[in-house]
Design goal:
Length: 529
């Protein structure tokens, strides 16, 4: 019955995740065949990627110029991230978040064991990841790729999802709230991406084979394990045994903790508030609720910025770069200095996505307050609905701007001792991410007032869609007008040079209009559970 209850609850969200991931696999496979139909074209791109570690940071591990291997290089990292996020959000919704809201008390009152709800969640999540792997396999098959490679690729994606399903279940046992659990698991996904990125970008290139032997950090990441199956070039399922072992161990630990833990208890305890509160405004309440999450986003931004700077310096200062690769750098990128700029822009661009997510999440908090009935208590006092909403919007805007700025400052500080001329340009790269991030604050506010019950699903979907259009629009051969729908497409290219800031001002104007519209609509609508 618990399994059926979870299947009914997830009948919309999980199919959306699975279908979207399969469509990305299909579109990427078909797009590569159209955009890079000859092996010579693919070889040229791979040679450039091997010579440009910023591309390895954003894409993955190249391993030959066959059609399947090229697709796997282009898209696997993002398929794995989607599987990881699907799994972590799913397990948090059905464990710690339900426990926090009191929904699991009814289950605990029935004659079931303490670990039964978690076991049901893991079972449904595992089945969802199996279906996700099958969907990726079918998507790549429909894109015209070899069947064996498609199957191995599907297994690799599913294995990453299973790992993060188990880690999410474990985090749910120690985190005090659903929000904290989501924050910790999202940080784990980000850490897996960064370890993979560092390992690939600092690996040993082999230009003759158009491949890179990744460095050891990649082997600390479940995403890195999935890469190393080399699905279409030299299939090897052995790395997936690491993923399976970690998933089994983490799931076992989570079930053991669940069977011994009291309902509502957690290893990480929330600090109780003061007996005499000083919160007097809706803005103060929104800030009090959000600042712990903001600290987490800022730490992620700082790590991303430091990674951008230190990785750029490490690669620019490498003396053992093959002569042929150096020639490719000079031919395509304009030299090592230009390469450093591109790497900083690419990695700080990831912080732009973090900034957008931080801002959108802050506005989504208003929906949680409304759905759980706490907003009614606030609005029973002499406070307007518009001011209540704008408090969360302002916190979201501050969050988005802070994350982008901190990433730029961290990148700049990493150059202080070795290349001080790049300090201010790196900070400017962080500032350049803010206008696009603020756009998602306004979009989330509009979704909140127009489609309150769908706020979280639609807001995250818009962010994911914008990311796909920005990262894969060219590969998928989408019309320029479609790609321009993504705010990330209009981010000024700082510090590469010749940046055009006019689009940034347009994004800021769109943000202001969107927030104003949300405020007007909020004045006229009632609260919705």
């Amino acid at each position: 019955m618990l399994i059926l209850a979870r299947l009914r609850r997830e009948r919309i969200q999980l199919p959306i995740w699975i279908l979207a991931t399969a469509l990305l696999a299909l579109a990427s496979s078909a797009g590569v065949q159209t955009e890079y139909e000859t092996e010579a074209a693919r070889e040229q791109v791979l040679a450039l990627a091997i010579a440009t570690p910023s591309l390895l940071v954003l894409r993955g591990l190249p391993d030959g110029a066959s059609l399947g291997a090229f697709v796997y290089f282009q898209v696997f990292t993002y398929l794995a991230i989607m599987a990881a996020l699907m799994s972590t959000f799913f397990v948090t919704r059905n464990t710690r978040a339900d426990e926090e809201r009191g929904a699991l008390e009814l289950v605990a009152a029935s004659p079931v064991r303490r670990w039964a709800p978690l076991a049901a969640t893991i079972a449904v999540g595992a089945a969802a990841n199996v279906l996700l792997g099958m969907a990726v396999t079918l998507g790549m098959l429909a894109g015209g790729l070899p069947a064996t490679g498609c199957l191995v690729a599907g297994l690799a994606v599913a294995s990453v999802g299973l790992v993060f399903l188990a880690l999410g279940a474990l985090v749910a046992q120690v985190a005090p709230t659903g929000r904290a659990a989501n924050g910790i698991t999202a940080a784990l996904v980000g850490l897996a991406f960064m370890l993979r990125a560092i390992g690939d970008a600092t690996g040993t290139p082999r230009l003759d084979a158009l491949t890179v032997e990744s460095a050891w950090p990649s082997w600390l990441s479940p995403i890195g394990w999935g890469q190393h199956v080399f699905a279409f070039s030299r299939p090897d399922l052995a790395p997936l045994l690491l993923a399976l072992a970690l998933a089994v161990v983490a799931s076992g630990l989570a079930l053991a903790l669940q069977s011994r833990r009291d309902l509502g208890a957690s290893a990480l305890r929330s600090r109780p508030g003061r007996a005499m509160g000083t919160i007097r405004t809706g803005l103060g309440l929104a800030w009090r609720e959000q600042w712990p999450s903001l600290i987490g986003w800022l730490i992620g931004a700082a790590v991303t910025g430091l990674l951008a700077g230190r990785l750029a310096l490490a690669i620019a200062g490498a003396e053992d770069v093959a002569r042929s690769i150096q020639e490719l750098m000079d031919r395509y990128m304009g030299g090592t200095g230009q390469l450093t700029d591109l790497l900083v822009a690419a990695v700080v661009g990831i912080a732009g996505i973090l900034a957008a997510a931080a801002g959108a999440q802050a506005v989504m908090r208003a929906r949680s307050e409304e759905a759980d009935g706490r907003a009614e208590l606030v609005l029973a006092a002499p406070a307007s609905r518009t001011r209540w909403l704008l408090g969360y919007v302002l916190v979201g805007a501050v969050s988005a701007a802070s994350v982008g700025l901190v990433a730029g400052i961290a990148a700049g500080l990493s150059f202080v001792a070795d290349d001080p001329d790049r300090v201010w340009s790196s900070i400017a790269a962080g500032v350049a991410q803010v206008p696009a991030a603020l756009t998602f604050v306004a979009l989330t506010a509009l979704v909140l007032v127009l489609l309150p019950r769908l706020t979280i699903v639609v807001a995250w979907a818009l962010l994911a869609l914008a990311f796909v259009l920005g990262q894969f629009g060219g590969l998928l051969q989408l019309p320029e007008g479609v790609r321009d729908l993504s705010p990330f497409t209009h981010t000024p290219e700082v510090p590469v040079g010749g940046a055009d800031w006019s689009a940034a001002w347009v994004l800021l104007a769109i943000t202001a209009v969107g927030i104003a519209l949300a405020a007007v609509v909020m004045r006229r609508r009632e609260l919705t559970v």
